[in-house]
Design a protein that fits this description.
The structure holds two protein chains of two kinds. Chain A is of the alpha/beta class. Chain A contains eight helices and 26 strands. In chain A, strands 3-2-1-7-19 form a five-stranded parallel β-sheet, covered by helices on one side. By secondary structure, chain B is of the alpha+beta class. Chain B has one domain: Alpha-Beta Plaits (2-Layer Sandwich). In chain B, the strands form two sheets. Chain B has a two-stranded antiparallel ribbon with strand order 1-4. Chain B has a two-stranded antiparallel sheet with strand order 2-3. Chain B is globular, with a radius of gyration of 11 Å. The chains are: A alpha/beta, B alpha+beta. Chains A and B meet through helix 1, helix 7 and helix 8 of A and helix 1 and helix 2 of B.
Chain lengths: 399, 64
């Protein structure tokens, strides 16, 4: 039996890819959410702005599954609490112990929370469908919202809440919006754009305390310069934590996700592979230190490599060479779509390929260069054929 | 096989045109154009395109 731990996009794609590569044995997917795998990107955008019922929202978002995985045994609402990789078992929170021949780690991430324990009410994160539906119920016009964190999720929630008529302030901390992914120049450009659309920013400050409104309800935040920002609710969008607790005690490198080789084998374990954003692996094109890639497309890309590797290892034959994974991402902020391809963080400089940083809404393409070689491009407000064009330039520069 | 793209869902992300360029193309306006009748030899490419579509707008209507 192959056990897949994690019942979201990565787990589904892993199961499908195992079937596509000829595995016909028993497959069990264990996921701690009660929902079948669904699409998360709309949670911080369309779902916050739509009035679907909870059931309809899941129906809208649920992934259509390939017919090849119709016989997969889904254990939903069940958590894997421990594992013994030497003896090839995992233990569920129901007490059941599953023995496996092959194991796929697809447990993804959970939202990082502020280390401030109370008050607990009126504090939201956006990771699961249930999270998004709970937040949506509170985003009525005039609501004062403080978004802590200015990454993709924070910016998307801020844009959507502003569109819904909320009064939104983003606490961006030491770096600008989406700066880790977009670099300084484009981050500042997007900051101006978001400001022009009514999103406020608080710069260079950390949240050190929470204000209490009535009965254990958060009423805003206190910043490290003593400023108090009142709010009806706060959204904690300060990043995520890899779900690797259940792998502890197996002598693995779990310092940031689970360390894998370039074929997605978990380092230090036999017949265990990892997929998606929980996996830390080396970029097979650019090299460098292993890193996790928190993009939607990574789940599908890594599932292909991981499934091929696991089946080869189980059969005792050499694993096929890993296909290079080119990172790609997108975000939608108001009517602007940003699309990225390549590894922006590897860049040492940027170059404007098209448009004007001061007017991203009129179309913009930013090239990211390392030693004069193009390693990534981000387009803003450009049609997809332009994005595809820049993608071919990035690929051409990499090979 | 026959391909159908639900235009009420399609957001012209263009990911399908990367996975299955023989079937899906983005025109000069960035709008999807695609072949509705496709050789079965392209089945894997089309399945990849279905997988990478961020809005799950692509369907295979009949196979064989």
């Amino acid at each position: 039996m192959i056990v897949v731990v994690g019942g979201s996009l990565g787990g589904l794609r892993a199961a499908e890819q195992l079937r596509a590569r000829g595995y016909s044995g028993p497959l069990r997917v264990v996921g701690d959410e009660t929902h079948l795998p669904y699409n998360r990107p709309p949670l911080s955008k369309a779902i916050l702005a739509a009035d679907f019922s909870a059931t309809d929202a899941h129906e809208q978002l649920a992934f259509r599954q390939r017919s090849s995985v119709a016989d997969v045994d889904w254990s939903l609402g069940v958590r894997v609490v421990a594992s013994d990789l030497a003896n090839q078992t995992v233990q569920l929170d129901t007490g059941e112990v599953l023995a496996y021949d092959g194991l796929v780690v697809a447990t993804g991430l959970r939202a990082r929370r502020l280390y401030i324990s109370s008050p607990t009410g009126s504090r939201f994160v956006v990771r699961t469908l249930d999270d998004a539906l709970a937040l949506r119920a509170r985003l009525v016009p005039g609501t004062r919202v403080v978004v802590v964190g200015a990454g993709f999720i924070g910016c998307e929630v801020a844009a959507t809440a502003t569109t819904l008529g909320c009064d939104v302030t983003v606490i961006e901390g030491a770096t600008g919006p989406m700066e880790r992914s977009l670099g300084r120049e484009l981050s500042q450009s997007m900051r101006s754009f978001l400001l022009s659309r009514g999103v406020r920013f608080s710069s260079g400050r950390r949240v050190v305390g929470l204000l209490t409104a009535a009965a254990n309800q958060c009423g805003g935040v206190t910043l490290d310069d003593g400023t108090e920002l009142g709010a009806d609710l706060i959204v904690e969008a300060i990043g995520s934590v890899p779900n690797t607790d259940w792998l502890a005690g197996n002598d693995l490198d779990l310092s940031d996700g689970v360390l894998c080789d370039e074929r997605m084998r978990v380092a230090g374990a036999a017949h265990v592979v990892a997929v998606g954003d929980v996996a830390r692996f080396t970029d097979s094109v650019l090299g460098g230190l292993p890193r996790r890639v928190e993009h939607w497309a990574t789940a599908g890309d890594t599932a292909k490599v991981a499934a091929a590797t696991l089946l080869a290892d189980l059969a005792g034959v050499p694993a096929p060479a890993a296909t290079a994974i080119l990172p790609s991402f997108w975000t939608d902020l108001f009517e602007l779509r940003l699309c990225g391809v390549g590894t922006t963080r590897a860049a040492t400089s940027v170059q404007i390929l098209e448009g004007d940083l001061h007017e991203p809404q009129h179309g913009l393409a930013v090239g990211y260069l390392r030693d004069d070689a193009l390693v990534a491009v981000v387009t803003v407000g450009l049609a997809s054929n332009r994005q595809l064009h820049y993608r071919t330039l990035v690929i051409a520069a990499l090979v | 096989m026959n391909i159908f793209v639900d235009r009420t869902l399609c957001d012209n992300h263009g990911q399908c045109a990367i996975s299955a360029p023989d079937v899906f193309r983005m025109n000069t306006e960035g709008i999807l154009e695609y072949d509705e009748v496709v050789d079965d030899a392209l089945h894997n490419d089309v399945e990849d395109a279905i997988d990478v579509c961020p809005v799950q707008a692509i369907f295979i209507l009949n196979e064989g």
